[in-house]
Amino acid sequence: MTSSIKHPKGLMVLFFTEMWERFSYYGMRALLVLYLTAELVSGGFGMERGDALKIYAIFTGLVYMTPIIGGFLADKFLGQRKAVFIGAFLMAIGQFFMAFSQFGELEVREFFRNNGLGLIIVGTGFFKANISTIVGALYSENDIRKDAAFTIFYMGINVGALIGPLIAGSLGEGINWCWGFSAAGVGMVISTIWFYAQRDKLGLAGMPPGREPKEGEAFYHLTNKDRLDIVIYVVANVGLIWGILKLWGSLPETAKSVIQWILIIGGIGFVLYLIAANTKGKQAWSRLSVIFILAFFNIFFWSGYEQAGGTFNLFAEQQTDRTIGTFEFPATWFQSVSALYIVVFASLFAALWLRLNVIGKEPRTPVKFGMGLLLMSIGFVIMNYAAKLAGDNNLISPMWLLIVYFMHTMGELCLSPIGLSMVTKLAPQKIVSLMMGIWFASIATANYLAGVLESILQTYLPNMHLFAFLTLSTFSAGVLALLLSPILNRMMKGVH
Fold it and tell me: pLDDT tens-digit profile of 265-285?
C-alpha cells in the first residue's frame, strides 16, 4: 500500500460502525449513575452516591478489561471480523435488558439490570480491541497515514459519544429510563447492520487465523460455519453471564475473594505466557516494553478523564446552573461536550500530525503522551477552583465545565488515538489484538480508579480534594513522560 494521503474505503466503514457502537455505550453510560441514584418511585434504584459510583467503577473497569479475552480469542480462533459481530449482538441484547430493568418487581428489575450490564461488558470485550485492530490492518507498519487514520477513527467514536447522551440522555431523563436505554439498543443494532452491509470494503482484514483467501477472493466472505460460530458464541455468553451472576450471588464473601484472586493471578500468568510465546528477539521485546510503559501513563490520564461519567456528572446535576431562560437542560448533555470538541478538532489534529511529519517536526509518541497529561492537569486546576466556587450550595456557570472539558479533550487528542495507533505499530503481529486488549486493560484500571478514588481519598487523605489530587497526579505523570521520552524513542527501534 502506498503512503498517499487518501485513506482506504474501509476506514469509513469502521468509522460508522464504531460511531453507532459508541452512541450506544455513551448514551447508556450518561444515564447509568443517574438511573441508579434516582428514587424508586421515579423508576430508579434509590442508591446512595457511593454505591452507585462503585457500580459505575466496576462496570466501566470491566468494560475495558474484557478486551484482553476478546483479543486473545480473535488472535487464536475467531479472527477480528467474527469477534466484532459477536460483541455487537451481545451489546445490543444487553442494552435492551437495561431498558426492561425499569419495570416489574425489584428482584426482576435487578436481574435485567445485572445481566444487561454483564452482556455489555462481555460484548465490549469482543468488539472493542478487535475493531481497532482492523483499522491498523488496513495500513502497513510504518505508513505515515496511520496516526491520522486513528485520529479520524477516533472522531467517529466521538460523533457517537456526542449524539448518544443527547438523544438517549434526553429520552431517559425526559420521558423514562426505558426510552433512553432502548435508544442505546437501537444504536447498537444500526452498528451491526452497517458493519455487515459494508463488509466488502474491508478487503481481507480480520480473517480467522490460518485461513487463506481463495483465488480471486477480494474480500472476506462469512461462511455458514462462521455464522454458526457467531450464534454459538452469542448464545453461550448469554447463558454464561446468567450462570455466573446466579452462582456469584449464592457464594459467601470469603469464597468470592478467593475466586477473584485466583482469576487475577491466573489471568495475568496466562497473558504473560502468551506474550512470551509470541515475542521473539530483542527488538520485539524492546518495542513491547514501550507499550507497557505507556500503558502505565495511560492509567493516570484516564483516571482523570473518566470523572466525566461520575463526579463531573453529579457536579453538573447538583452544582451547575443548567437553566436557559425557563428551560433547564438535562445534566447528561454535558456528557456530549468532549465529543463535540473532538468532532470539531480531530481532523485538525490529524492534519497537524501529517503536516509536522512532512517537515520533520512531528513529536514522537511519548512526547504526545506527556503533552496530553499536562493538558489534563491544567483542566483539573480549573475544576478544583470551580468546585471551591460552588461550595456546598451554590450553582455555578456551565462555562466552568465547558472549559475543563476543552482542556481534557485537547489532551485526549494528543494521547488516545495515538496510543491505539502505537499498539498496532509496536505489537508482534500474532498478538496485536491481545496487546490491544492489554492497552484497554490500562483504561479499565483507570476507570475503576475514577469511580473509587473519591472514597479512597476520604478514607486516607480526608483533607485532599479529589480534583486537587488529580491535578498533582497528572502533572507529575506528564513531566515524567517527557523526561523519559528520549529513552522510549530509542526503545521503539525505528517506529515513530
Answer: 998 899 899 999 999 999 999
